[in-house]
Design a protein that fits this description.
Pfam family, one: DeoRC
InterPro entries: Carb_Metab_HTH_regulators (IPR050313), DeoR-like_C (IPR014036), DeoR_HTH (IPR001034), NagB/RpiA_transferase-like (IPR037171), Tscrpt_reg_HTH_DeoR_CS (IPR018356), WH_DNA-bd_sf (IPR036390)
Domain HTH deoR-type: 6-61
Keywords: DNA-binding, Repressor, Transcription, Transcription regulation
Distance between the termini: 38 Å
Protein name: DeoR family transcriptional regulator
Structural class: alpha/beta
Radius of gyration: 18 Å
Shape: globular
Helix content: 25-40%
Length: 261
Amino acid sequence: MGQRIISSRQREILGLIETEGVQYIEDLARRYDLTTQTIRRDINALCDLGHARRFHGGVDLPVEGSNISLNARAQLNRRAKRLIARRVAADIGAEATVFLGIGSTVQFVADALRDHQGLTVITNNIHVALSLCDAPSVEVHLTGGLLRHDDRDVVGTDVIRFIEKFYATHAVVGAGALSPLTGLMDFSYSEAQITNALLENSQTKFLAADVSKWTRTASVRVAPFSKLTRFYTDRLPGEASAANALAESGLEVVTCSEETT
């Protein structure tokens, strides 16, 4: 059976849950000028696919502390992720050796790198490998390890051992969540270990993450902002704590828009 496609309205509702948190059926019905029954059908479809979790009167993300599936994440903030990816790719020259980590934003970066000449990519991200497998000027090294079906990536100690065989000119990583106090956060220890290995074995370290990551809560520390070279995002949140934390870390922030890309 083919993969079930969500509608544009359902994708928008996912984006609202991701960026604003809990959404209520009555509010969504008013927002879209639809009946509550229609909104319930949208919510039921998202929940049946594992993208969201219903409760009486509303919907939110799946169980706290877990990530939603990669397919769901790829639907969220697509325009912002494409802008971020194009700018990241523009800052990676030909003949570079690049680590591409896990996550949907990094997947968009891979798409933007397809025409780079003489590129060597090392990744544990299945979607990255698939995106680049027919790019003739890009050499792709895919790690071994344990396949995670929902995330379309590979984890485990074999991944870290493979990464340590290389020293990359660039690492491009994402994050499950961002915190002014602790920096990069993720949802599992295995993800955090791999991201750290990418950062430790690279010269220039790029973080690619849209503004929604500041609203998420993850339990595993990955790295402080000071460990990174540059942060690419669509915009910073309104709270001053995020901007202050980034300024204190010395991390260069690149805000990506149509003009900058």
